[in-house]
From TrEMBL:
It comes from the Bacteria. This is Acyl--CoA ligase. Residues 17-385 form the AMP-dependent synthetase/ligase domain. Gene3D superfamilies: N-terminal domain of ligase-like. One of its GO terms (molecular function) is ligase activity. Keywords: Ligase. It comes from Streptomyces acidicola. InterPro entries: AMP-binding_CS, AMP-dep_synth/lig_dom, ANL_N_sf, ATP-dep_AMP-bd_enzyme. Coiled coil: none annotated.
Amino acid sequence: MFLQRIGSKGIRLGTLFDRAAARHPANFVVLDHDLDIAPRLGRRVTLTELADLVDDFAARLWSVRVRPGDHVVVHKSDGFDISLLACAVARTGAVPVLLSPKLDGATVAELLRRVGRPFLITDQGKLEQHLPAEVFGLSRKVLLASGEYGGATSLASLAGAGRVPAVSMPIDHPTLITHTSGTTGTPKLAVHTGMSFQARYRPQATVVGGAVRRSEPVAIHVSFVHSRMFTAMPISILQGHPLIILRDDDPGTVGELFTQIPPGFIEAHPNTFLRWEVLADDPRGPLANVKYFSSTFDAIHPRTVNTLLKASRRRGRRFAQAYGQSEVGPIAARTYSLGDGADFNGRCVGVPFPGMTGVRVVSRDGAPVSKENPGFIEVRSDGRIVTYLGEHQRWQKQVHDGWWRMGDLGYRTRWGCLHLLDREVDEIPGVQSTLEIEDKLFTRLPELVEVIIIPGPDGRAVPVVCTREDAPLHDMAWKAAVIDLPALADPVQWRLEDLPQTATTKIKRLELARLLAAGPAA
């Protein structure tokens, strides 16, 4: 779209920290963990130090013959150095391929095959405990971010490699490859260019720039391998915000850190915000200074939005929700205030960004699209990926006359607001919207920390529920909560940690349905 293209130079990940440090040399990043590749730096690091670290590791990669156009897979233990290594790889002109630490070894091996003998950056722990031996045959060279392992080269041993100038690649060249959530099977490898990332950056940068003052810290708890990290992080450091990077979403740890360094803006996964509801009652007020909460990735529930807004003491505080997808970036957005209450319509996900993104809803049966007859949601954006690596035909199947089919069902109101009802694969006959039912159950049952409506073996809609501290669900409270809802099977209670999750904490609904059908043994 035209406002995404004007004057675009691309995201330029390889020089990102150089440019941020040139603007704000003394600005800092606060971490809740040590970096595996540079534990000596500690947990409060300046942008100047991070720029030097990226330059250093780009030189180490160059010394083992990583060159422009090569693919470098990063699959290591969780940490912010995943994102830093991606910038270092991009600095050499190579293409970083980021694989979640949560992926199992067999899936990693399959994705290495799809990439085609890339360099692999991993660590001793992954090789000893998770990855199959075949990764050595599937990789051109195995490099270690930490530890030692036979047949692999540690990045630490390459210290002192001569620095090399950053390589500038064309704006339409692949700059990063991430993977999809894998909620419906083996993840797909999404190919982003410098142009597509910059196109995603602009609408989000506009929102953050007008939301909080430059001096206010921005806190981010986002998967380090997700494309969202590579728009959220640049926005913060280029605009001059002190940046708080969280690996752990434990409320106790987060509450302590936010008490010491109160953020003015927080970006996190929906399920992370759900877990942080308990911080609203923390007497230290760790969320008191937040002007904007922001989330994308998945549905956010009205109860969570209202609880977090009540925890802030800022005037004009807002919760911003963006609707998008890994393949296209943010497409539509809306904000909520305390005035919306705890039972607003969470299915309304907002309107497109003018001049930047577009939305249409296509009928499935020729009849007009409505709430009762939802259609396919399709979108336009220059932030769209250019292909799935090794699966271009699969990518083409989702493009219709230049519009990208999201795999979601919904409708638009007469005022243009987009309403999301369900994923196509999650639709249950006789249930208008599983997401709407989940929203209502969250609002009516404060003890719930997760509820997922999935099809049972007999086709009936089954609620899988998780409660705070795994307390038994009160039978009478449940019956009162569902009295006016579509017919549901009896709830099945699980522990939250037993639910199959993606890298961004989304629940794998199809996998959960399979486990439920397989019975207790599974």
